[in-house]
Amino acid sequence: MKQKHISRAIYCFIAAAMLSSCSKKSDPAPAFEEKNLAPFSVEFDNIVGDRTLTFNNTASPYTNAAGDKFTVSMVQYFISNIKVSTADGHTYAVDQDKSYFLIKGADKSTRFAKVEVPEGDYTKLSFIVGVDSLRSTMDLSKRTGVLDPAAGGGHDSGGMYWGWNAGYIFFRLEGNSPSVPDNADGDPTGQKQFKYHIGFFGGYNAPTINNIRQVTIDLTTAGVAKVRKDRQSNVHLFVDIMKVFNGKNQFNIAAHPNVMFSDYSASIADNLTQLFRHDHTEN
Ligand SMILES: [Cu+2]
Questions:
Q1: Which of 86, 129, 204, 259 can bridge 90 by disulfide, Cβ–Cβ 3.0-4.6 Å?
Q2: Residue 46 CA, ligand 1 centroid: distance in Å
């Protein structure tokens, strides 16, 4: 399956080369000018270890580092507050009103965060996995689209919102594993279901854990983003769902089959920063 990623990367490269070969020959970065906006996108390409993300693949489940076999039935997460930096020290934060994205594993059309940033050559990208605390408490008129608390049909049917004080679910992963203990919380039906609903912004009424995490990605190794008005620069990231289990706070599913409101959510939030790996950039 690794081969599949490599061939996909080559395809992207060829497609990008065909699109922009005319304009790329001599291409000095334009002077950084905040008003000089051009299209830029970040692509969130979900994988599981060295395999493609497939849902409910019971015939060939994934195996985490602890040896648990598992399948995935849902994965979705918020990406927000996108920033880019040039090598010579300019940092640009995308207009915040246009910087919230809900990536849904089951809907490939949601895999791009499409924004505008000034023309320039960017060596660094950063974003929040989740929703910042300020936005979480804003008036509903400032929380439309993917931030609409009613979107997705509420918490029980794939929605990403708990309530005013708890806020948004930043990262939602569900699936099945024989390692889930019988009668685990949240598994009344005996389907051996695991659920990780990681959120909380440090809500102010009854202070919660703050599980907001920022991710910073160095683009110099796999491809600087050359943002220009005449093209679509796209930073292609692999998002390795396996790292939820195998990040720096490795755990087994039997120990934590169902994490939402517990302190352990912070340990999983720490793992979330390790999901994102820059594979290549299309310029
Ligand atoms: Cu690509």
A1: 86
A2: 12
